[in-house]
């Protein structure tokens, strides 16, 4: 069997929700639409303020299970001269899609992320992102996101479909480096602890 068809390849794990998929249910304690969600973890490369060259992406709760986010491309994010690296743009989509889990109040990690790069994104541009949860099937959380440039109604530069997989807290405590796990759990602000692991407080 070739690597591309092996059981670890992810091939066949469709990004389209099954026809009988359950509609996502916004958690009753989810932040009101318009609320800035803030960094889920200070050291997150996507949203953390403690990461000098990180994206510092700012996500806001939307209606239902949707979020909007903004990220301004800085010189540290280049791939080609003057243009954002594709991996950085995929990260912006991943991070925005991951923020949906806070509205569902589940802990989940990215299982699959398929990205279309539609237009080049220059340094200095702000990417306006919108993500929505398209369904929940067991532990699988389906999502879709777009990123626009030139304004929130500007042309689409990137888009992605994703499947996040719900995990237990042990996913992090067993696999993460102990010093960071210990520090995150020791934070006296329990909302911060909950957010660091995107867990129901
Ligand atoms: C301090 C640190 C804080 C961190 C906070 C994080 C918050 C997040 C913030 C956001 C930050 C940004 C986000 C990040 O950067 S998250 C970081 C990047 N992601 C990861 O590191 C995940 C690594 N992968 C794994 O750990 C495992 O493979 C997981 C946990 C995903 C599944 O292994 P597990 O053994 O548990 O699952 P299972 O085999 O029983 O399958 C269960 C179901 O799932 C389906 N399935 C499985 N894999 C895939 C796949 N790839 N595509 C599609 N579907 C898949 C599977 O078919 C089955 O479906 P069904 O048969 O039930 O229908």
From TrEMBL:
Q: How does it sit in the membrane?
A: Peripheral membrane protein
TM segment ranges: none
Q: What is the reaction catalyzed?
A: tetradecanoyl-CoA + H2O = tetradecanoate + CoA + H(+); (5Z,8Z,11Z,14Z)-eicosatetraenoyl-CoA + H2O = (5Z,8Z,11Z,14Z)-eicosatetraenoate + CoA + H(+); hexadecanoyl-CoA + H2O = hexadecanoate + CoA + H(+); (9Z)-octadecenoyl-CoA + H2O = (9Z)-octadecenoate + CoA + H(+)
Q: Which UniProt keywords apply?
A: Apoptosis, Cell membrane, Cell projection, Cytoplasm, Fatty acid metabolism, Hydrolase, Lipid metabolism, Membrane, Transit peptide
Key word Lyase present: no
Region annotation (Disordered) maps to 1-33
Sequence ranges assigned to domain Thioesterase in this UniProt record: 82-140
Name under which the protein is recorded = Acyl-coenzyme A thioesterase THEM4
């Amino acid at each position: 069997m070739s690597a591309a068809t092996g059981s670890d390849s992810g091939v066949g794990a469709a990004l389209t929700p099954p026809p009988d998929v359950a509609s996502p249910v916004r958690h009753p304690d989810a932040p009101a639409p318009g609320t800035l969600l803030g960094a889920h973890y200070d050291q997150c490369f996507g949203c953390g303020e403690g990461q000098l060259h990180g994206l510092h992406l700012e996500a806001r709760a939307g209606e239902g299970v949707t979020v909007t986010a903004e990220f301004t491309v800085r010189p540290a994010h280049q791939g080609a001269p003057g243009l954002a690296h594709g991996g950085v743009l995929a990260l912006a989509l991943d991070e925005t899609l991951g923020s949906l889990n806070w509205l569902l109040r589940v802990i989940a990690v990215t299982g699959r992320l398929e990205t279309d790069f539609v237009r080049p994104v220059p340094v200095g541009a702000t990417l306006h992102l919108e993500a929505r949860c398209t369904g929940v099937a067991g532990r699988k959380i389906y999502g879709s996101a777009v990123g626009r440039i030139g304004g929130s109604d500007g042309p689409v530069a990137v888009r992605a479909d994703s499947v996040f997989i719900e995990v237990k807290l042990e996913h992090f405590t067993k696999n993460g480096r102990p010093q960071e796990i210990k520090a995150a759990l020791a934070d006296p602000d329990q909302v911060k602890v909950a957010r660091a692991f995107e867990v129901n407080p």
